[in-house]
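Quick one, tokens below. Sequence please?
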């Protein structure tokens, strides 16, 4: 269990249910583990905040010396609110319009990895139009090579590099980085280590190459008895190969889920119990709209309880709507539970709250941080008024 039952009861009594609970010590341990695993001296860690944009958590990364990886302008906006200096933010996103590209520059972000020739051109044009007031950017290309990156719409093919280099030079800029994203969430360390040399060979095709951004995509062992990504092995192999390059390049690593998944738990309470053909059907006070990963996106999150009764029964943990996919877990092994019992849905720090929505019109849970033996609210529980946000209508009922 992530923490003891007394604390779970206290948290629910204080903040209500369902509740996202983050453990600062666990998060810091993970940050430390990843940081220590890569001995290469010019390594810069950037937390991929697409996974979790809570400012209090971003501040933990910032205080640990990490930068931020931004997928979108919104990531940058949140990062700056959290206290990151724009030069600690790496942008590697897709399909910005001109206004957004200008905004990125005006915020002061200077490291940008572009994912198409059109985005590279827009970036250069925007820089040229703003060059009086903004810093010279450090530009890179996101690699697209199906054998290495998997089939993806994102990125630039090596055969386009010549054009990209010429284009960038025509604006008086240089292409200095290669961004590689292996693919999402694999625990197979080899999937990363065995492609390092090929990525480096491709990077050398950029004459002014001086940084490698190696992603993103490192797995987290949601199945606790399954394989985990081996950070030490990855770090040693990558360092060896970079040390043998014969040139000084900066390394950017931008973990998302691997850094933050394990520090969070979604607490929920049982509101209904029924049995169907030997299976326990638990109704709980949360929904896939609060945590969409397991059911909507086909992920798995372990669900546990403090109740110790035996035997265990096959159990479906069902959300509090009739949406046909409203399952938090299917075929879990849980003891016979009763109304009011507490369930802990584990490892929800990444793509949890960040992917929650107002689908099904249930307000979102609160978020709480455990740190230094205390707990504090880091995001208010929503109430129904949030469902009216930005709606314009006549016949306003209750103000
Ligand atoms: C460029 C980039 N880096 C990092 C991440 C974080 O991914 P993960 O959580 O798989 O590490 C993403 C996710 O979309 C991404 O697009």
């Amino acid at each position: 269990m992530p923490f003891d039952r007394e604390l779970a009861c206290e948290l629910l009594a204080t903040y209500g249910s369902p509740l996202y609970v983050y453990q600062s010590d666990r998060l810091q341990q993970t940050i430390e583990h990843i940081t220590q695993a890569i001995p290469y001296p010019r390594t810069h860690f950037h937390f991929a905040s697409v996974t979790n944009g809570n400012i209090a958590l971003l501040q933990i990364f910032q205080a640990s010396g990490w930068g931020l990886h931004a997928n979108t302008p919104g990531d940058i906006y949140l990062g700056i609110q959290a206290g990151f200096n724009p030069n600690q933010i790496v942008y590697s996103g897709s399909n910005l319009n001109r206004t957004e590209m200008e905004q990125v520059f005006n915020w002061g972000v200077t490291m940008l990895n572009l994912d198409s020739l059109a985005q590279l051109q827009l970036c250069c044009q925007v820089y040229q139009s703003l060059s009086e007031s903004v810093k010279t950017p450090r530009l890179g290309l996101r690699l697209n090579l199906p054998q290495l990156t998997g089939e993806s719409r994102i990125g630039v093919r090596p055969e386009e590099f010549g054009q990209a280099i010429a284009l960038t030079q025509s604006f008086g800029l240089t292409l200095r980085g290669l961004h590689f994203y292996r693919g999402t969430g694999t625990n197979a360390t080899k999937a990363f280590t065995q492609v390092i040399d090929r990525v480096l060979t491709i990077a050398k095709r950029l004459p002014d190459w001086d940084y490698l951004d190696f992603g993103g995509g490192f797995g987290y062992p949601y199945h606790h008895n399954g394989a985990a990504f081996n950070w030490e092995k990855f770090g040693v192999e990558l360092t060896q190969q970079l040390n043998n390059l014969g040139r000084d390049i900066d390394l950017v690593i931008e973990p998302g889920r691997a850094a933050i998944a394990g520090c969070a738990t979604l607490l929920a309470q049982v509101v209904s119990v029924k049995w169907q053909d030997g299976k326990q059907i638990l109704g709980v006070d949360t929904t896939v709209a609060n945590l969409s990963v397991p059911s909507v996106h086909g992920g798995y999150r372990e669900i546990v309880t403090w109740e110790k009764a035996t035997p265990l029964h096959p159990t479906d943990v069902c959300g509090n709507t009739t949406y046909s996919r409203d399952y938090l877990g299917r075929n879990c092994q849980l003891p016979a539970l009763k109304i009011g019992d507490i369930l802990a849905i584990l490892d929800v720090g990444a793509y949890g709250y960040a992917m929650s929505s107002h689908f099904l019109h249930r307000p979102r849970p609160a978020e709480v941080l455990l740190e230094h033996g205390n707990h504090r609210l880091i995001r208010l529980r929503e109430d129904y008024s949030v469902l009216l946000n930005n709606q314009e209508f006549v016949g306003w009922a209750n103000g």
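The longest strand covers residues 264-276. The chain has a mean pLDDT of 96.
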